[in-house]
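Good morning,

Attaching, inline, the backbone tokens for the sequence recovery test we're adding to the shared suite. The designed sequence is right after.
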């Protein structure tokens, strides 16, 4: 049984960083994969272009629309494959949108109108296309939940981790200043006879080489610094929560399958 401890280091709407201890690299990697690509994210999926007088091809505009991050309520929408409508399409698994504008001017993400009041663009000022005098654009389409494993537009976050660094003095330090200068991350410091590393240390080993064996950097897979940066409409802490729920669901499916064996 894995007993986890989570100690927050940094938390904002878009980024969360924490220390995962009493864990394993395998668990951290499963969490990384779940947070990146295995939670449902809303993105524009179908686009019907009725008018496009801009300089961009229809396909380019459709691609740009698909990559606009959308805010949504994850408890309100279903994946089409899991919806009561069996994927036929209904308000529980589809969000309709329209985009109409006449030039001259720039079409921005904030010009997209959704039929669900809980859905909106995360960044209102993403330029989509420039319209000249007498140019216009008229588009309708559908946003759906999907997974980043199928298309990058459904990617939830960038998630990554590194082992927690620990440093020991195991010999005679000749020049402390030289060692602190050699650290590319400026993570090394000394207090009396002790050496300290900050969490910026990436275990590159440069200080160990320069110390001629007087310093030893260690880490083990039971303590890990984990970072999630959201690239979707969900906040970083929502991504973490959804990723943990996804892992719990995998474990529960596995147990059910085992019970049948
Ligand atoms: S291992 Fe690299 S990053 Fe870490 S303290 Fe030493 S020189 Fe700096
Ligand atoms: Zn449905």
């Amino acid at each position: 049984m894995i007993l986890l401890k989570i100690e927050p280091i940094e938390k904002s709407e878009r980024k969360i960083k924490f220390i995962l201890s009493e864990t394993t690299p395998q668990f951290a990697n499963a969490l990384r994969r779940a947070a990146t690509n295995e939670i449902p994210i809303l993105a524009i999926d179908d686009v019907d272009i009725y008018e496009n007088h801009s300089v961009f091809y229809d396909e380019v505009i459709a691609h740009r629309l698909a990559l606009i991050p959308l805010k949504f309520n994850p408890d309100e929408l279903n994946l089409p494959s899991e919806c009561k409508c069996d994927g036929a399409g209904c308000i529980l698994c589809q969000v309709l949108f329209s985009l109409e504008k006449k030039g001259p001017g720039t079409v921005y993400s904030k010009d997209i109108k959704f039929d669900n009041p809980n859905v909106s663009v995360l960044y209102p000022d993403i330029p989509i296309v420039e319209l000249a005098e007498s140019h216009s654009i008229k588009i309708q389409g559908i946003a759906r939940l999907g997974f980043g494993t199928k298309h990058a537009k459904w990617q939830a976050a960038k998630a990554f981790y590194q082992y927690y660094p620990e440093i020991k003095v195991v010999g005679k330090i000749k020049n402390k200043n030289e060692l602190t200068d050699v650290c590319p991350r400026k993570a090394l410091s000394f207090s009396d006879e002790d050496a300290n590393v900050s969490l910026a240390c990436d275990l590159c080993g440069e200080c160990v080489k320069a110390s001629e064996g007087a310093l030893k950097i260690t880490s083990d897979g039971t303590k890990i610094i984990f970072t999630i940066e959201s690239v979707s409409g969900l906040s970083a802490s929502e991504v973490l929560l959804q990723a943990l729920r996804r892992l719990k669901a995998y474990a529960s499916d596995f147990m059910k399958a085992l019970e049948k064996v």
